[in-house]
Write the structure tokens for this entry.
Amino acid sequence: MHSYDYGLLLAFFALVLVPAPLLGRFYYNVMEGNRTWLSPVLGPLERTCYRLSGVDEHAEQSWQRYALALLAFNLAGFVLLFAVLLFQDLLPLNPLKLPGMEWTLAFNTAVSFVTNTNWQSYSGEASLSYFSQMVGLTVQNFVSAATGIAVLVALCRGIGRRSAQSLGNFWVDMTRATLYGLLPLCLVLALFLVWQGVPQTFAHYVNAVTMQGVDQVIPLGPAASQIAIKQLGTNGGGFFGVNSAHPFENPTALSDLFEMASIILIPVALIFTFGHYVKDLRQSRAILGCMLALFLIGGATSLWAEYQPNPTLASPMVEQSAPMEGKEARFGTTATVLWSVTTTAASNGSVNGMHDSLNPLAGMVALANMMVGEVIFGGVGAGLYGMLLNVLIAVFLAGLMIGRTPEYLGKKLQAREVKLLVATLLVMPIGVLVLGAIAASLPGPMAAVSNPGAHGFSQLLYAYTSASANNGSAFAGFSANTAFHNLMLSLGMLLGRFGYILPVLALAGSLAMKKSAPQGLNSFPTHGPLFVTLLTVTILLVGGLSFLPTLALGPIAEHLSMGF
């Protein structure tokens, strides 16, 4: 590594960690309806939204009504997007006269964007009209991210409130998260990307003649606006087929840095938002410390692996260096590795290189980041409520070890809460192991795998892990656009999204109704180094017990077979 690589790492962490506390406080004020510097501008628009939709912003909902509103909203979004994709040939802004999508692919894509997964079994510039990209995908990029923020805020209120019957209002939370939390940042980032060279136009594709005399079609479109929300909303779905490796999505080293930082900016800020809800920022620092520790462990392992020469290509006559297969020469090894670790830790499906070309251990880190439930920063909102589930599990284990009723911030964890926690532990194993095993046992679906042996198994494992973790990135080389995989991966995405959201809301409702006991000298502190260590070990143990055998059959076996 060179000085540029170390500078890149420092700049990345500075762009995320410096503004995060201020942004976290801003999100707390926004979601609680407190006045902010944007209130004079967006307040009238917010109130107009409530009047037009008939929402009483002061009426709160129980967790059951909150969940029903969320499900109804997401179902409506799915139906609308499914229809847009099926009938895009009949809709405007389709300069290439692209046909409607095949129904299983349209179903998969609609589920993907509604669940904040953004798994794509198609190439955007060759399959989707401008209308489908904007009205279909970009809208869902906003509202799926806002849904994650709303669920997190409901859980924060459940932990912070005492003897309460309500968690807020889903419609109000969605509106505020979109208007204040996502739109302003996306506008700034989109303008920055246009400055860097990302197209934002309704013009037709351009026909050009290359130096070799070959006709080439250069795709254009309203790309910058979708790329801004795909990164800030931890969505990841690319406007172009090769995603952020495309020079029109990610033109420069500067755009690469700012896109990477924007992926985890809001997830990190929401950690501080949680601290304001529970009136204890020490809890935020403890959770951030755990996330950073896991991120640095994975990042260091990936960097080490990618800077090792490939022994298969070793020759005493040639000086070996870090392999560049599958990496963008514009960005280099460190930027590609940092992107792969960031996106798989943050539930973002974008790529600026090919994960299929990563060394086995780097590929294993990408898999492990998703297998633990995308809690190392994770998706907008989703990452932190997933981490809080692990916090409660760690508190429960600590209570077992010391023989006390487990409690978190004065709220006792009893049978109902523990059952809900156990239910969430089953989501990833069912999505990855059960659905993946069904796909691996059938000869038809296995034809989608392009490589033999351990690497081929990793391709299949990665696809079902990415879907169940609502990540959306792909290992490449896996032909997922078949009826079987479109429908089975859709099932994994739905399970990975709502298999967490519904227990989280039920847990929030249960905790909100509890009285809060004052913490004494015998209470287990959840803000010190001991708890950070316990939380980190809990996450690694739960993930390892669930998925280590499958990792041994895939990337670990491939690593050993290469003779490192």
